[in-house]
Specification:
This protein has 166 residues and is mostly beta strands. It has two domains: 54 residues, no CATH class; 97 residues, Immunoglobulins (Immunoglobulin-like), CATH 2.60.40.10. The chain is 2% helix and 44% strand. The chain is built from one helix and 15 strands, in the order E-E-H-E-E-E-E-E-E-E-E-E-E-E-E-E. The strands form five sheets. The protein has a five-stranded antiparallel β-sheet, with no helix packed on it. A three-stranded antiparallel β-sheet has the order 3-4-5, with no helix packed on it. It is globular, with a radius of gyration of 18 Å.
Length: 166
């Protein structure tokens, strides 16, 4: 049985499975899930692999979308997919840290792009990347948001290890 919980933002979760209806409530043997913004609209969607059946794609379409930025890293001296990189984003006084990881679930691969919710922040103050080979770079004052931003290793501002992504 598949179960879907909604974060109530008060430390509790509620079961919303029945409210979602089909195909969530149809009994299927799911074997792995992958998370990505499949429609590039700024929210993370889910695809579930089913045994001997087609996968199910669950799109999240927010009524009141907030600002966001997805970061796609391209390694040059490091591995091309930048697996092992750490991204540190500061916007609106808040800092978020994400790592690029391979795999994710059984027979599944999550999106390698790192997705950051920005809320009402209208720009990214600073974005630090520590590449898998140890190079640390920064990009500052990113005003174009609500999109996928591609960053290539070696194109940012070099950062001393003491002030970069941790």
């Amino acid at each position: 049985r598949k179960v879907v919980y909604r974060n109530r933002a008060d430390g509790r979760f509620e079961d919303v499975t029945e409210r979602l209806g089909e195909p969530v409530t149809i009994p299927r043997a799911g074997r792995g899930a992958a998370f990505a913004d499949f429609d590039n609209d700024g929210d993370v969607d889910v695809i579930v692999n089913n045994v001997h059946e087609t996968p199910n794609l669950y799109r999240l379409d927010l009524r009141e979308p907030k600002n966001w930025l997805a970061v796609r890293l391209v390694g040059v001296a490091s591995n091309r997919s930048a697996i092992g990189a750490r991204v540190r984003l500061t916007a609106g006084g808040l800092t978020q840290v994400e790592e690029v990881r391979g795999g994710g679930s059984y027979y599944s691969q999550n999106d390698l792009r790192r997705h950051f919710g920005l809320g009402s922040a209208g720009a990214v103050d600073r974005l630090d990347v520590r590449w898998p080979n140890g190079l640390e770079e920064a990009w500052v004052d990113i005003r174009e948001i609500n999109r996928v931003l591609t960053l290539t290793e070696g194109t940012g501002q070099a950062v001393r290890p003491s002030e970069g992504a941790r």
